[in-house]
Amino acid sequence: MSEHRNRFVFFGPPGSGKGTQAIQLSKEYEACHLSTGDMLRDAVRNQTEMGLKAKAKIDAGELVSDDIVIGIIRDSIGSPACRYGFILDGFPRTVPQAEALDQMLSDRNTSVEHVLNLGVSDEVVVKRVSGRLTHLTSGRTYNKFFKPPKVDGLDDVTGEPLTQRPDDNENIIRNRLKTYHGYADKVLGYYNQKGLVRNINGEQPISVVNEQIRSFFKK
Prior knowledge:
By secondary structure, the chain is an alpha/beta fold. The protein has a domain at 6-120 and 183-214: 3-Layer(aba) Sandwich (Rossmann fold), CATH 3.40.50.300. It has 8 helices and 7 strands; from the N terminus they run βαβαααβαβαββαβα. The chain has helices at 18-29, 36-46, 49-59, 66-77, 95-106, 122-130, 170-193, 206-214; strands at 6-11, 32-35, 85-89, 114-119, 132-134, 141-143, 197-201. The strands form 2 sheets. It has a 5-stranded parallel beta sheet, sandwiched between helices. The longest helix has 24 residues, at 170-193. The chain starts with 5 loop residues before the first strand and ends in a 5-residue tail after the last helix.
């Protein structure tokens, strides 16, 4: 098997389904799923050099700087878990981050292969995220708009109450979308110039989106 045979950036707004797709495909193709938020938490928990720097910023109420995030990405991509490839989810968010990613991969004689952009309208994102309901014990999920429970607010199997995350409300979602749109066009423009962007309609059924993404992967 060749090193880093699948090298992808998954792009899309919150609620586009990119995280769900990345988790599934990373297991199937042995490509590590690198979610920026998860990596930061892991680095802090494991007290790595970059994790300690990140913790200092977080404890001070400051944003984690580019050099720390990039350092954590570099450490992760160089780990044995990523030897057969990686799926970046939530990174890069700026053109300088994209340039830094290119440089660190170039140092390893490799590069990003595809940027898979899952397009979903703001209104669909709002319905997807604000409609999410979860049965905490089992992890079963529902959606008020797309996949409602048989009885409003209750789990189909146990009849127990369903819960909704506090941040899954319309105002917070629209603020997150505003942040996303603030950087998305610039980063996608950077990758478009390199001919790497593959646009996928993220409003299609999950199975259809999965099949279209899968067509870019190599065994």
